[in-house]
Specification:
216 residues, mainly alpha, 81% helix
Amino acid sequence: MSERKKEHLFERYLLFIIGLFIASMGVAFSTKAGLGTSPVASVPYSVSLVLTSISFGMWLNVLSIIQISIQIILLRKKCKPLEIFIQTILAFAYGYLTNFSCWLIRSIEMHNYLERFIFMLLGCLILAFGLWIQFKGRVAMLPGEAMNRAIAEVTGKKYENIKIFFDLFYIALSVVICLVFLHELKGVREGSVIAAVIIGLLIKLFNKLWKKLTKK
């Protein structure tokens, strides 16, 4: 590999890591608002409210391990060891960055529903921006998205339909966990549904804005 290609690859990974951190801040904002977080994060967050001895970020890591295992089982010989290794490293980095992001905004206080709702919307905006930057890096996928891709490849179903199914599944599972163990909805609420609807739209908006800026 030439020096220029190595430098370009490093820049792409750096961009991806920056996107990871921004996305983790979006998740932290959403959880701080207390109106439910993104669908993928809703299950780890709900479990962290029940089993408090393990942090939210660590439960994210547990979910990532499950998603990676599903990929290995489904893809078998088609599974790429290097890609799985990179996914594992990035997934654990994302879990720790989420813990760090939650720690950074720990002192912020909200006093009414409007403030919490605005904070939740900011979380969606930040998360979408972080995901968009990750896509621009074009070096890897986080386990959740890679698992959706693997299922789509094996079943022949559209990736978008698989993603929608699992987003709804994560929300439903979070509802069950909260109602059974907490007797109230904490890990998943209206914010989870809003996130499921608008994050994809926000990413499309960032793409349109980027195309307009780069055409000039």
